[in-house]
Design a protein that fits this description.
2 helices, mainly beta, six-stranded mixed beta sheet, disordered N terminus, disordered C terminus, signal
């Protein structure tokens, strides 16, 4: 136990790697649960799963570059979002937050939670500059830029479930569930290789 505590102290001094250190430790410590839902398109609208019967925020499309993350690549995720509020009834969204539920697929079989955070502001996030205010009936395209993962991050399958909320009332607006694979090397698809993404600040 003292050994683990010492490693934690030394590595978490670097806040950039704190997230990945938590992942490395918790995949062995947290209980697992099986997720029955799967999707071959790597993302789906999970509003029904989160008991949001009439989602006002709809995810029209989600793409990533590259689709498979490797040791030296980052990843950029693009989302097209539409606010399906009722004109004259629903107000424009001045602020938006999101709950993030992150999973790792242990031994390629069981999804395990390694991070769950709530009410993360989205309007001022990098790549979301055109998100707020979001007007009724309006569609916007946003992107999330992720740098290369830490060297100690386990290879395998990852999922990110995001429940978006009205930042003022905390009303749930919609949900998106995304899946990606992390490998050591690029994946060859036909005669082409997925290219690595250069992440610049």
């Amino acid at each position: 136990m003292r050994f683990i505590t010492t490693i934690l102290y030394r590595m978490t001094n670097d806040h950039t790697h704190h997230y990945h250190l938590i992942l490395l430790l918790l995949i062995f410590l947290l209980p697992t649960k099986t997720i029955a839902k799967s999707d071959t398109n790597y993302w789906y609208d999970c509003s029904i799963d989160e008991h949001i019967p009439n989602p006002k925020t709809k995810f029209l499309n989600v793409t990533s570059n590259p689709t498979t993350v490797t040791r030296h690549s980052g990843q950029i995720i693009y989302k097209t979002i539409q606010y399906d509020g009722i004109p004259g009834v629903d107000l424009n969204l001045e602020t938006i937050s999101a709950d993030f539920h992150q999973y790792y697929k242990v031994f390629g079989k069981r999804w395990t939670t390694f991070l769950h955070v709530h009410k993360v502001p989205q309007c001022d996030a990098k790549g979301n500059e055109n998100l707020c205010p979001l007007k009724v009936g309006e569609s916007v395209e946003i992107k999330s830029v992720h740098p290369p993962l830490g060297w100690y991050t386990p290879y395998g399958m990852y999922r990110s479930r995001q429940v978006w909320r009205d930042g003022s009332t905390e009303e749930p607006l919609g949900c998106v569930d995304m899946e990606f694979e992390y490998r050591a090397e690029d994946v060859v698809v036909g005669d082409e290789e997925e290219s690595e993404v250069e992440i610049t600040e």
